[in-house]
Amino acid sequence: MKKLNQITFISVFIIPLFSIQLTAQSISRKEIKIPDILGFKTLKCDFHTHTIFSDGDVWPTIRVSEAWKEGLDAIAITDHLEYRPHQGDLVKNFNRSYEIAKEYSKDFGIIVIKGIEITQAMPPGHFNLLFIKDANLLDTLDYNAAIKEGKKQGAFIQWNHPFWKNPVFPRVNSKVEWFKQQKELYENGLLDGIEIVNERDYYPDAFRWCKEKNLTILGNSDIHLPTGYFYDFSKDQHRTMTLVFAENKSEEAIKEALTAHRTVVFFSDTLIGSDRFLREIFNKSITINEAKLEKEKGKLFYIMITNNSDIPYSLIANGIDKDFEFSTDVYLPARSTARLGIKPKKDDFVGMRNLILPYKVKNLITEPFESLKMEISVGIEMK
Amino acid sequence: MKKLNQITFISVFIIPLFSIQLTAQSISRKEIKIPDILGFKTLKCDFHTHTIFSDGDVWPTIRVSEAWKEGLDAIAITDHLEYRPHQGDLVKNFNRSYEIAKEYSKDFGIIVIKGIEITQAMPPGHFNLLFIKDANLLDTLDYNAAIKEGKKQGAFIQWNHPFWKNPVFPRVNSKVEWFKQQKELYENGLLDGIEIVNERDYYPDAFRWCKEKNLTILGNSDIHLPTGYFYDFSKDQHRTMTLVFAENKSEEAIKEALTAHRTVVFFSDTLIGSDRFLREIFNKSITINEAKLEKEKGKLFYIMITNNSDIPYSLIANGIDKDFEFSTDVYLPARSTARLGIKPKKDDFVGMRNLILPYKVKNLITEPFESLKMEISVGIEMK
Amino acid sequence: MKKLNQITFISVFIIPLFSIQLTAQSISRKEIKIPDILGFKTLKCDFHTHTIFSDGDVWPTIRVSEAWKEGLDAIAITDHLEYRPHQGDLVKNFNRSYEIAKEYSKDFGIIVIKGIEITQAMPPGHFNLLFIKDANLLDTLDYNAAIKEGKKQGAFIQWNHPFWKNPVFPRVNSKVEWFKQQKELYENGLLDGIEIVNERDYYPDAFRWCKEKNLTILGNSDIHLPTGYFYDFSKDQHRTMTLVFAENKSEEAIKEALTAHRTVVFFSDTLIGSDRFLREIFNKSITINEAKLEKEKGKLFYIMITNNSDIPYSLIANGIDKDFEFSTDVYLPARSTARLGIKPKKDDFVGMRNLILPYKVKNLITEPFESLKMEISVGIEMK
Amino acid sequence: MKKLNQITFISVFIIPLFSIQLTAQSISRKEIKIPDILGFKTLKCDFHTHTIFSDGDVWPTIRVSEAWKEGLDAIAITDHLEYRPHQGDLVKNFNRSYEIAKEYSKDFGIIVIKGIEITQAMPPGHFNLLFIKDANLLDTLDYNAAIKEGKKQGAFIQWNHPFWKNPVFPRVNSKVEWFKQQKELYENGLLDGIEIVNERDYYPDAFRWCKEKNLTILGNSDIHLPTGYFYDFSKDQHRTMTLVFAENKSEEAIKEALTAHRTVVFFSDTLIGSDRFLREIFNKSITINEAKLEKEKGKLFYIMITNNSDIPYSLIANGIDKDFEFSTDVYLPARSTARLGIKPKKDDFVGMRNLILPYKVKNLITEPFESLKMEISVGIEMK
């Protein structure tokens, strides 16, 4: 009989005389610890979700309670405009799934954004219109007209999963040019961002396009099922989301940040985005406990590195040092400390050295096929 | 973009050149191993589920795919008759949630039973009418009329969660008498079974009533949320269900078995039911590897007990032996082997002995406050 | 071939051409987040561990690497003095297990304390002598002589698991008086603290004794097996430990804090200790997001409570309010936010109210059979 | 105070009046379900383990209890001959770790094999001598003499991790020739098998060598740490092991099977071995529920495939059909059922067809770089 919004109230005190009972499956929000950076708040957002009002499987309220439980700050409800297989059972109203979610969100503090997904065969493909005012005014099969109406309402226009069912093969590392439909949208100012990750599919080319054309990168779940049927939260998985660096936690600030390209994509254990955002997140996530080490000659040194965030980091050496060997792989799980070892190549090495250890953070992707480069400095004295 | 009924088809062979990817979250059915007994098939059934057509949170298809993934054989769709908070958004048809689930079930091999939940304040409370033909004919606020119409259609009538919001306190081990409404239903042959477990609440009194009045015991999830938000399948939890001992896997055989009281309730790690069913399930689940042991005097003996089923068993000693001590607690996890130790009380004991070790299986409940008693026989020779 | 102290060094860059490989099982330390309080550092300590030098199962280095991985700050090596079943295979030296652990600890930053466990039948039972200088000087079966020598060396003397194999029954809530042996030790200043939790056994009477006699409370693992065979770290279990509120992270500061009774026991999900320590830990762990709420009359309110620590808290209502109902149970998992609901008893209630909601934190034990009481204040305005 | 071989005995009945307690962490054996094949028993064996008597971290008894808990049938104790860093603390006896494990194994039913690891720099590298009689007779730094003495005692000689610290780069897919030392051993009949998997490192070249030279393939854990610190059993991981197809569960039968090359390597979720063994294991693990399907034209078909074993299988399509599309990926987790979808390429296809669907089982490796090929037959009728 338990509903997510139900709570048990005191009226009498119950004394259980005979109880076979599990610990109550409490409803709580798992906070995801990712540092705020550059004076902005790091908001966790999913700009692509479905409900039973299109081809999703859940009532809109579930999208809100899921978002709350999973530590998100904002979601967009983006039911398909043209594809509504349950329509025969439902009263027709393209705003309805948003309205239900919005009303329910008040008791959870979740920001709900009104959206719609233009759903056309490729080309042009699928587009989310986010921050719209009235979805019913978009009810047309002419995608150009719908997108223009969306823009008139102030929409941020996101090209969804550009390689999904893309007829051009192969899907990655290709020389695919855009179709003319997409070019037109872009040239007419009707394209603001691209999903470079949809669900768990990463499109390196789309990341490249965003860099070349100055578009906003986004990563979203595009969830139709209950999220728990796709992500295993017991194993610390999380849904694909867009990190938005916003002035504050509000719908307006999110829209401003999207327009200003202040986003990073977070999927699986990977972050994708510009060097400056990823470097800052990494630096604010870790602490290195020792910068000065003294040891007897020939000995092994250890640097302790603590990851205070909920993002694991995977470091791999990105160069060599002429006098010292050092750990090739350093894996930093969430909320953990790892050791990085340093050893002189020659046992009789004595004296002081300032070492600059070059690494890549494998799971921080700053270019379509490239990871963040960083260095760890350490002063060593061997006696 | 993944839907539970989608599969990926070959058209070209894809060569991933650059992939950051998790193992695909495959859609599969976790089989629950519980032995068939007494010539019957042990079917796993849930006779109480909700969808968005009443106050549930999911589209009816989800109830089918959940049942499949969780290893169930049959579910009943039992949306509330009188309580339909989403009705304003939906076309009115009390059969509709069943129809959608039934159609979808064909590709999963799940039996879907048409039901409805009569939803009245206590008394009389809530009643599920199972195996009905046309729910729309039950559309009345007169619960007596609705139940009679259900019976006319051949319904099995289940009294739901009889202690939920029951105004009489305390809720267990009480001398609660039934209200006259419930008595009347029973006396008029309009009550066939009682939920002795709803969700994770066990009502020992309801179990007693079923024994006294020869009613069928049932345990159901009464799920409104996606099941995965209430049960943690990654930790091997399972939904509350009714085990039905049926002639075969068919809707008709389930109905016959319910009528013949061939049921056991399975919730948390506990089975509740008559001694003969639980004893048989236990005996067919375990194998004891040694019945004859030889040892030097003063030594410790071990019996190995293997649990081949997916139900863990928890044994606790239920008596003593004058010459031997033996393990007080033996915990038998699913698909595991545990050791039971035996030791002479006196180190100089020699000779042969046939030991009968008395135990209770704590999590097999045969009476409202009593567990299954069993014995382990072992022949011992100490030299 | 992997050893816990091994790391892989770069010499050449390896290009895997064909790899079936799991993510490397990296060696890292899981930090346990418990707030520092009252100007002290909260150190995580285990004052009772065994190695193969008595009847433990692991080489002493493992005790160090386990402590590091599990987020501890300090351990004592306390092999039995009189019980050394592996002695036939080992060179005799009562200091040896400490020496090996101490040497190994340098690369992990773990404090290792030299200890020994006096191991006599009850009475007097078992006693850990902690912070001793030379265990070989204690080599006598006369426990009084051994304890006096320990005290001469500056030992802190801990009575271990006082109810283990205690011949007096029942083991809890009894009127057990101490044996004269224990009284003598106490009266002669040879008893400084008592293990009120050993492994997962809690002795409420021992907690009472410590309060009455002004002794230090301790909780330890008494681990013989590898810790991972007793605690399931994948399920966020942790070993039983003593939280020590110390001036700094050093052996001396730990000893001073033990002497000054600044300890709390942490076992399962439960903390045991004085009201002032537990209240402070709780208050520094949680943040309550709203203290002022406005709503329309008849509506439900929610307060959001965030637990920033790694200790889950379980609140249960400890009283009622004449005008408002409020959540009976609030479960606050680690690093999570939960909602506490408040509802007027009468729908037509209007006006302002300062509510004081009384709760107990079930898993914070301040008296042998009593939990921490606390209140949540909230200002409400209903219009 | 809990030891793995301790059990709690009844003497009085304890009534807990106040208990904060977890479910007892019971000691049990997790059975690994892998089918017996070709008239042989499938035994789970680990022929490479260390204890504190060389550079391992645990007392030999732990190797036995670990093996029991993890569902193994046999282990070899193979401490290094030449490398014994704890030797200063131990009485010298190369047979001792075996003796301790052997004595302890009696209460667990685990077969313990006496072995020793010849530990020389490459070349020649490391060799396990298995089934020896007296390790003390091998006490020489002349590896040739030691191996010959081992062979005299009836040893099976296993070349360990041939690519570990191998000075020749690259380590896989190379044209590495053996060193003369290894060739000599082979030519003199002093080489019986090779570890093609050590820990989690797979050496495809070593697999190729075994095929070319008719040597036995083996995969072992080479465990030094407690196994639980390397494998996460809570996530259903298992140690690397060798499956031995033996006449019966005895040391003699294992030796005979090793000599006759009846082995398969099981590591991570992968099996490596000859086509005939892997095909048989796969076929005896799965059941396909439908071989005949009737559907309306244009419809999607499903075949249900159940995996009854504890080995997950991952199927990938290995060809196409001119008229039908079918699932490219079918993942069959342990003890689960998955669906394989089939769809006519043209919606108007009618008639009968016997389909032969070609797949590879990705995680069954039959050649160094090749997986098991298999086909699924299904008769289809579309009306």
What does this structure look like?
The N and C termini of chain A lie far apart (71 Å). Chain A has a 16-stranded mixed beta sheet that branches. Chain A folds into two domains: 41-268, Metal-dependent hydrolases (TIM Barrel, Alpha-Beta Barrel), CATH 3.20.20; 287-382, Immunoglobulin-like. Chain A is an alpha/beta fold. Chain A has seven helices and 21 strands. The longest helix of chain A has 11 residues, at 275-285. In chain A, helix 4 links the parallel strand 6 and strand 7 (193-198). Helix content of chain A is 18%, strand content 32%. In chain A, helix 1 crosses helix 2. Residues 1-25 and 167-175 of chain A have low confidence and may be disordered. Chain A has helices at 60-69, 96-105, 143-152, 180-187, 204-213, 251-259, 275-285, and strands spanning 28-30, 41-46, 74-77, 111-119, 126-130, 156-159, 193-198, 201-202, 216-220, 241-246, 263-267, 270-272, 286-288, 292-295, 301-307, 313-317, 324-326, 329-332, 336-344, 351-367, 370-382. Chains in contact: A-B, A-C, B-D, C-D. At the A-B interface, helix 1 of A face helix 1 of B.
